[in-house]
Write a structure and sequence with these properties.
By secondary structure, this protein is of the alpha+beta class. Helices cover 26% and strands 28% of the residues. The chain folds into 3 domains: 24-72 and 86-96 and 110-213 and 408-457, Bira Bifunctional Protein, Domain 2 (BirA Bifunctional Protein, domain 2, 2-Layer Sandwich), CATH 3.30.930; 256-385, YbaK protein, CATH 3.90.960; 474-567, 3-Layer(aba) Sandwich (Rossmann fold), CATH 3.40.50. It is found in: Cytoplasm.
Length: 568
């Protein structure tokens, strides 16, 4: 273990956080001297912050070792050719730091390392007998965030654990996925961050099956949908719900074209025609790669573009611009509809449209609608799917309990990539029949520095931080009130000598006022605080847990038992 004298420890605290710091974790890490900004989204980790970072990394190393995954390290500087081969060089977009060397060769700073690991495997793994195998690294990554904010929560340079598994069979991949999920849960538990594993979108990572580890927090940028029983949890991007609306069956009425001037929203149209939004079908034109897709949904619901992207299996899905809309359909916004929509390569509808009767749809003419339109009689749909954004309070799809929305921070993400990269990059092996097959991959990541912010967000006190014991920068904060008091010095040094072989101790030996020392101690957030003060001659000290409002006096003879009980 380690001992440190605070008079020699670099910890530049601030009375007030900078005015541009919004997240509580950002404010406290700046005030406590854990980090300092170098430029937007890029931070230095000062001694206090680096101690927390290294302890978190050590936990990760231990848990990965338990599932027999060895550690290695890859370069930060990568050639563009691998990313061009996988197709992600363009797809990653402006978030990638791209550069050229003196010979004009395109390169990048690694935002993640699927391609690099796949290339290593392609060159060195040739037989099913070499699998399953997995590798990991803990390394700095680079992403050119458009709006870096909230301190370590959204930066342009950050530390990440990224692991990659390689299997010969789907059964091997499933086991690797379970092993990594178990290791991640143990890591988060030991680091003191509460998480929900949730159904998630794979995004630019590829693959279809993924789970996010979301840490509920007030400053979170994500929203997760959960039920009370804990049997359902999903990122809002992927959340499903049960639609409870049922339209009463009725006789089909005659299709009628009506003028609807200036009704370019569902609200305006509903008011003008005196019909509820549930009797209106919205029609929105999307461009999916090079295809024109008309998407239908009931008027009271919103299209979830992430779900739509999965259904269409397209690299890029975007809503048509007003100019494109007018050129393709002949109508401005609000007038587009599915009747005689010959311009559409495909018409896809949300499940809410399936059982509607006599609805309002656009007439493909600005300021005109059709009333009493009916599916199959007046318009056709090529495919139905769940395309809507779930709403809070709707029944979940498992136990039909009301969905609850919570803001949260994504701290980890695991993916079953399958053969997404290995087929493209030629990472084949010979199976037991001597036949070439693509290696089956998994990818597993923890945002290490982001996780530290999540821990702080979840462990705020009135005046500082209550660090979980395994990642606290120091396990014990020993504070001496008067440095010119011989009894206090003698007792404090004897406590330091007795406990430092077992625990990390920060000994505040500064000639500062008590108020300064206690304020700094709140920012250090050690699980145990020991104050040597006016009763030192009687061998009595004050002890305080980080979350306690008040300290308690105990004789030094009971100190070891108290510390052991608190810290183990």
């Amino acid at each position: 273990m380690e001992k440190m004298r605070q008079s020699q420890f670099f910890m530049p605290t601030l009375k007030e956080a900078p005015s541009d710091a919004v997240a509580e974790s950002h404010k406290l890490m700046l005030r406590g001297g854990y980090i300092r900004q170098v430029t937007a989204g890029v931070y230095s980790y000062l001694p206090l912050g680096y101690r927390v970072l290294r302890k978190a990394e050590k936990i990760m190393e231990e848990e990965m070792e338990k599932i027999n995954v060895p550690e290695m390290i890859m370069p930060h500087f990568l050639p563009a050719t691998m990313w061009q081969e996988s197709g992600r060089y363009k797809k990653y977009g402006d978030e990638m730091f791209k550069l050229k060397d003196r010979h004009g060769r395109e390169s990048l700073l690694g935002p993640t390392h699927e391609e690099t690991f796949t290339e290593i495997i392609a060159k060195n793994l040739k037989s099913y007998k070499q699998m399953p195998i997995a590798l990991y690294q803990i390394q700095t990554k680079f992403r050119d965030e458009n709006r870096p904010r909230f301190g370590l929560l959204r930066g342009r340079e950050f530390v990440m654990l990224d692991a990659y598994s390689f299997a010969a069979t789907r059964e091997q991949l499933d086991q690797q996925f379970e092993d990594e999920a178990r290791a991640f849960k143990a890591i988060f538990d030991r680091c003191g961050v509460k998480v929900h594993p949730v159904i998630a979108d794979s995004g630019t990572m590829g693959g279809k099956n993924s789970t996010e580890f979301q840490a509920p927090a007030a400053i979170g940028e994500d929203i997760i949908a959960t039920n009370q029983s804990g049997t359902y949890a999903a990122n809002l991007e992927m959340a499903k719900s049960i639609d409870t609306f049922k339209q009463e069956p009725e006789a089909l009425k005659e299709l009628t074209k009506v003028a609807t001037p200036n009704c370019d929203s569902i609200e305006k149209l509903s008011e003008f025609l005196k019909v509820p939004a549930t009797r209106i079908v919205k029609s929105i034109l999307f461009i999916a790669d090079d295809k024109k897709v008309l998407v239908l949904i009931r008027g009271d619901k919103q299209i979830n573009e992430v779900k739509l992207g999965h259904v269409l299996d397209a690299d890029e899905v975007r809503e048509a611009t007003p100019e494109e809309l007018l050129e393709i359909t002949g109508s401005a916004k609000g007038g587009v509809g599915p009747i005689d929509a010959k311009y559409a390569d495909k018409i896809i509808a949300d499940e809410t449209v399936k059982d509607l009767y006599n609805v309002v749809v656009g007439a493909n003419e600005t300021d005109f609608q059709f009333t009493n339109a009916n599916l199959d009689r007046d318009f056709k749909v090529d495919e139905f799917a769940d395309l809507r954004t779930a709403n809070e309070g709707e029944p979940d799809p498992v136990d039909h309990e009301p969905l609850k929305f919570t803001t949260s921070i994504e701290v980890g993400h695991i993916f079953k990539l399958g053969t997404y990269y290995t087929e493209t990059m030629g990472a084949d092996f010979l199976d037991n029949n001597g036949k070439a097959q693509p290696v089956i991959m998994g990818s597993y990541g923890i945002g290490v520095t982001r996780m530290l912010s999540a821990v702080v967000e979840q462990h705020l006190t009135n005046n500082g931080i209550q660090w979980p014991k395994e990642i606290a920068p120091f396990s014990i904060h020993l504070i001496q009130m008067k440095m010119n008091d011989e009894d206090q010095t003698k007792l404090a040094e004897s406590i330091e000598h007795a406990l430092s072989p077992i625990y990390d101790i920060l000994y505040d030996d500064r000639k500062e006022r008590p108020g300064v020392k206690f304020n700094d101690a709140d920012l250090v957030g050690a699980p145990v605080r020991i104050t040597v003060g006016r009763k030192a001659a009687e061998n009595i000290v004050e002890v305080k847990r980080a979350g306690d409002d008040k300290s308690t006096e105990i004789p030094v003879s009971q100190l070891v038992n108290f510390v052991t009980e608190e810290l183990g």
